[in-house]
């Protein structure tokens, strides 16, 4: 609910697929990462690519375009010095240098409202 409310205040809308994919990653651990795309004309955030549970950060890097902006979330598993298994979800704003400036500003400024 918080996600839908935050996006409503920015004029952008997150699709139901984004929400369900993120919840599947967070609670069911079926995805390692999700790449989100902003559709500039419709002002919607949609799922661009989903990485399976066995994929790595390098697979995420390879899935990001060199000529367009994206948001991504990555579920990072690690073991602490106390030998405890942990997991953290990282939010990534993928911004490329030669993007149309108003769109780049939109992507950079609205990143926190996506998640």
TrEMBL record:
Domain ADF-H: 11-115
Keyword Membrane appears in the UniProt entry: yes
Family membership: Belongs to the actin-binding proteins ADF family.
Biological processes annotated in GO: actin filament depolymerization
GO molecular function, one term: actin binding
Recorded GO CC terms: actin cytoskeleton
Protein name as it appears in the record: Actin depolymerizing factor 5
Protein species of origin: Arabidopsis thaliana (Mouse-ear cress)
